[in-house]
Amino acid sequence: MDSPSAEIKSLQGCLNDLISVLAFPALWSGREPDQMVTALLDGLVAMLRLDFAYARVGSLGSGPPQDMLSLPGGRVGNIKAGEVGLALGPCLKGDLPAATPVRIPNPVGAGEILVVTLSLGLQEQIGLLAAGSARPDFPTTNETLLLRVAANQAAIWLQEARHQSAQKLAAEELEQRVVERTREVSAINEELVREGSERERAEQRLTAQYAVTRILAESDTLAQAAPHILRAVGGSLGLEWGALWVVDQDARVIRCQNIWHAPDVRSAEFDAVSRRTVFKLGEVLPGRVWETGSAMWFGDISRNTIFKRANVAAKEGLLAAIAFPILLGGQTLGVIEFFSRKPRRPGSERLATLSAIGSQIGQFIERKRAEEEQRKLASLVENSTDFIGIASTDGQVLFVNRAGRKMLGLQGDEHVRRTVMTDFVADSERDRFVNEILPAVMRDGRWEGEVLLRHFNSDALIPMLNHLFFIRESTTGDRLALATISRDITHRKQAEEKLRRSEANLAKGQRISHTGSWTWNVVTGECFWSVEHFHIFGLDPETFNPTVDNTQRLIHPEDLPLVKQTLESAIRDQSNFEVEYRLVRPDGSIRHHCGMGHPHSNSEGELVFTGSVIDITERKEAEAQLLAVKDELAAELISMTRLHEFTNTLQAETDLHTLLEAVLDATIELQGADFGNIQLFGPNTGALEIVVHQGFTQESLDYFREVREDSSASGRAIAHGKRVIIEDVETDPDFARHLEIAKASGYRAVQSTPLISRAGDLLGVISTYFRQPHRPSDRVLRFTDLYARQVADLLEQKSVESALRRSETYLAEGQKLSHTGSWADSLSTGEIYWSREHFQICGLDPETISPTYEMFLDMVHPEDRSQARETYDKAVRERGDYECNYRVVRPDGTIRYIHALGHPVCNESGELTEFVGTVVDTTERRLSEEALRHAHDELAHATRVQTLGEMSASIAHEVNQPLAAIVTNGHACLRLLGREHPDLEGAREAVEAMINDGMLASDVIKRIRRLLKKSAPERSQLDMNRVIQEVTLLTAGELSKNNVFVRTELESDLPAVMADRVQIQQVLINLILNGSEAMSGLLLGPREVLIRSLRSAPRQVTVSVQDSGVGLKVEAPERMFDAFYTTKPDGLGLGLSISRTIVEEHGGKLWATPNKDQGATFRFSLPACN
Amino acid sequence: MMTEQEPVVYVVDDNESLRTAIKRLGRAVGLRVEPFSSGKQFLDAELHDGPACLVLDVRLPGLSGLDLQQEMLGRNIRIPIIFITGHGDIPMSVQAIKAGAVEFLTKPFRDQDLLDAINVAIEGDRAARIQQSESAERRRLYDSLTPREREVMRLVVTGLLNKQIALELGTSEKTIKAHRGNVMHKMHASSLAALVSSAGKLAIDFPDLGILD
Question: Which among A7, A118, A128 has a CA at the least distance from the CA of A58?
Fold first, then answer.
């Protein structure tokens, strides 16, 4: 009563526990491996009431193996897992079968404890699990089962975790790479931006300077120039608000004279405050600049309390301020002040530039002042009541003041300018004037005296006046006579001088910034180019005439329409223009230019464009490079994403073929290839075989089905273990022999990347093909390597999996069936090694016996000994493989059949050092073969018995025949003897006949008995003709029942065959009876079975049995040899099947052919004896 | 008169040993035995004119025993047949007997059984042969009659008086008396009863003669 219910309970418990163990993975999902193991151990301790559970788990990442321990009730105390591991030491590395309990001192308590260890994974490659319990019955069957299942689960999940962690590492690595790469690229980007902005600033500075120069050149007054200057400087330097402050020397203050602001700045209040405010010397920004005469800046005025206008400025968002003086000869004439919204610290170049601009403006102011002085003076002269005139040294009258004009009746300035000095002098005075006065003035610089002048409208003489002629010298010492220098000339000269000076600076800047400047008079077509302009155009200033046509001829034809259009519209609208174009230099190189132009009118009112040309080729290239880097980065990111997806796919998919297809697709997409394939390396075949492919013709597939040489790309890749790229197959000499197939397939370029396992083994090749000559980029190749790495891992994983499966199967099978031992024979030392199994096969104890060759030979069955020795000696002599079948006699007398294999091992110098091999105990196989043969014999016998049973009536007849003769003879004998004169002669004859018939009857019975006898087949040399005759006798009766008779045509002197008589007779009987059956339904014609024997080949005897019956069933000529195939209602269908088996066992053949006219012929052939 | 001839036993069996044994047995009892190995051989042989019987094996190569029996009937060879067989079965023996076999013996058989069967057969044959020769004599005698005599004989055996016959035939009683005397003489008939008997046998043996019509 108790026991079954307890068992049921225990089974229920076990089932529950099993479910729990199987549920572990659900708990483990997403956990760290050590957490999984701990959970498992805790679970096992609780479920199995263990005293402890311990696990050693191999490294999951990079660390050493981990020891983990779980004790009942979560108790760990001060017991360290590692110590338990040490205590378990002996159990952990023993060769004991898994789950065999071992008794050791309890490492977590007192007394002894039973410990069971299980490996996690095959051969403990994942780790070990140990469970300990003090219970004496530990582990029960259920517990062992649970432990095994748990270990299995843990192994699977840890393997998975390991795999995931590897994946994670790879992913992190990838991510890290992406981050680094991104950082790199962004640094490059920044650098480029920085360079770009520096260049830009230089350009801005130059533009500002140039603009100021131009503005000043074209302005009459500072008031007129100021707004332009502020706009030009502020605009080109990216400043938002500017003001010109002018020093009022008299009031000792500085005032705001002009204000400019960027169009998007609303600064009305600030403007107003600025206009209202005056600063004293040294006061705030303008005051300080005035005082120090040097530029100043504030990065953020809001932090500076001295700023009066800071609050208002802040309202407008103007934070940074810079101011520079307008200097002349060390004196500050004014201050230009700029504000900016961006807090910034100006560079030294910028300050220098602004200072230079300040000086420029200072000079302009000075010049303007001088002109003002002149104008004031002229005004005095003009309004003087005296005659004041000016003439040039060559006598041309330049100026006559109003009083003088009135005096002489001159009609205005034009009239004056049409005159020469002598026109003024009265005729009487003219000689003296020319010959005395003028030379004196020229000589002495002055002459004072009276000269009579004449009136222009009348001949009236002007009263003689005292005149002072004096020479006015220019600053350079040129002599002027009452000099008036054409303002234009002066102006031009001075402006030119200044221009030249600024141009020198400009040229310097232009060289640095690749900026050339130009002016183009639209009306006259005159062009002026700066030196740098020529330089930028790659032209010689001496030889090139910079006309518009000449210039436009140099512009890239594609860009010319745009340039022309831009110029036309600029001319039409008199507007600024800016155009980028490509220039073809005389040396053929192409440069990118940016041209800018500003329209203005010259003094003649002609439309003139002034502008600059900047060589932006480097910038363009930098931009392109930047763009390329960005593209590259984007592509890389996409590739990374793809790789990630790809990795996920690989993990999700389990079918290798599908996986490889996915890999190939991804690679082809990555490389933009036209088609591709993956070939795997068969280590056994030594060839690359196409496993998956895309886009190939069948012809090409057939051609490259197995690659063994190293001229193709994949062959080279596998031969050298590295990637091969054939950029153009038509130019690759080594590829020449495949060129035709490459052309047929339609590819020009090939890339083959080898798939290499982590251990360095070549697994295969992934190849991509391109229709055009091509070389994949480094980035693509880098990713291809990553893909290849994935594939190799995948292949390795699959091969490990299949190896695992194989080894599992092998183990299971092996345990059941094969006992394979191994051996090694060190020929040099004579030492012989046998594996444990080898000993077991031989029934020997490995502990007590060390094997020798002699001992081995002694063990071999005496009948096999010499053969075994000769075979081995021959293998050693010829250094060939060794294969031998022999029997060994175990010490207990049992005989085992051995199949031994051996292989020679040579050292580096080719010397045979040792033989290694295996022995397989084939006894069971042999026994089963024996059993099979036996069963077969039994069947044959049974068929025979059945056949004979069917023939019993005929057999009785056969026996009756001689019996009838005997009886009759007996009677005759008696009568002959009983006669009055006994006929002794007749009686003797009768008795002799009786004896013969008796023998005959006995023979028949003997034959039948032999057929019925169940004896092991025994082969002997047989005369086939005799066998036929005997069978004919046996079957004659049966045949005569069907009115069928046997005829024989036997070839004499047949060679003997080595065969079992009974079995061959059985075959014959079968064929004869079949023939008879076939004729049983015939109404007409002969009923005859013809048996022939003949020598069909030198060493072969063929027997044919021919009938004239219904013939063969045409639809199944071979089926009739199948077992249980029959056309007879009560037939077993075994006859022909067994007959064929018998003949084949004798090394012969049995077959059937239809006759020409009627019936069929069955033939069998047997090899003749030597 | 027919002369009595020595009876002959024909043996057709493919088993030579048995043939010899039977011949030997015949020798022991003073029977002439002529062995044949096949039916064809037997048919081809010149048979002796005298009482005989045939010991025939049912199973023979080529022409079987039963086939031979049919063939002999077809050829009007009226030799009594004793069948011997190694494994006689009832249907086969019934068929053989129906076709006129004398005996059906299963091998091995007792010598006396065979010899008895042979004796019966030969006696039967002898009687048959005698009967056959008397009938032939009667026919010969009958054939010697003139047509008028045959007519007279036909009317005499039906019991008509001479006067009635003469009336029937349209002739004189005297003429009829002369014919009647010839008939009696030619037919070796000593009395009217003998002539009637002779005519009856002729009618049986040769129905086509229409003697009793």
Answer: A128
Is the separation of the CB atoms in B55 and B10 below 8 Å? yes
Q: Residue A525 pairs with which residues in a beta bridge?
A: none
C-alpha angle with apex B23: B19 to B27, nearest 5 degrees?
170
Among B25, B84, B86, select the one facing A971 at the smallest CB separation. B25
Q: CB within 8 A of A529, min separation 6: which ones?
A: A516, A517, A518, A537, A541, A546
Check residue B12 and give its pLDDT.
Answer: 93
CA of B78 vs chain A CAs: smallest distance (Å): 25
| C-alpha closest to that of A41 among A67, A64, A5 | A67
The percentage of residues in chain A with a pLDDT greater than 90, rounded to a whole number, is 3
Q: And the tokens for A694?
A: 């895309």
State how far the Cα of A225 lies from the Cα of A218, in Å rounded to an integer. Answer: 8
Q: Count CB-CB contacts under 10 A for residue A413.
A: 12
Task: State the CB neighbour count (10 A cutoff) for residue A721.
Answer: 12
d(Cα A129, Cα A118) in Å, to the nearest integer? 5
CA angle A415, A420, A421 (to 5 degrees): 120
The pLDDT score that the predictor gives to residue A817 is 47
For B194, the token pair is: 């003998």
Q: What is the dihedral of CA B187, B193, B194, B199, to 10 degrees?
A: 60
Q: What is the pLDDT confidence band of residue A465, given thresholds at 50, 70 and 90?
A: low
State whether ipTM is beyond 0.90: no
Element holding A918 (H helix, E strand): strand A912-921
Is residue A578 within 8 A of residue A562, CB to CB? The reply is no
- Residue written as tokens 């009115």? A1043
Number of H helices, E strands in chain A: 33, 39
Residues whose CB falls within 8 Å of the CB of residue A482, separated by 6 or more in sequence, listed in order: A389, A390, A391, A398, A399, A469, A470, A471, A472
Percent of chain A with pLDDT over 70: 74
Chain B hits for A979, CB-CB cut-off 8 Å, are 28
User: B33 near B26, Cβ under 8 Å?
Assistant: yes
* Residue of A968, A980, A1083 to mutate for B, most B C-beta atoms under 10 A: A968
How many H-runs (helices) and E-runs (strands) does chain B carry?
Answer: 9, 5
Option in A971, A979, A996 nearest B111 (CB): A971
Rounded to the nearest angstrom, the gap between the alpha carbon of residue A209 and the centroid of all alpha carbons in its chain is: 55
In this structure, what DSSP letter does residue A524 have?
T
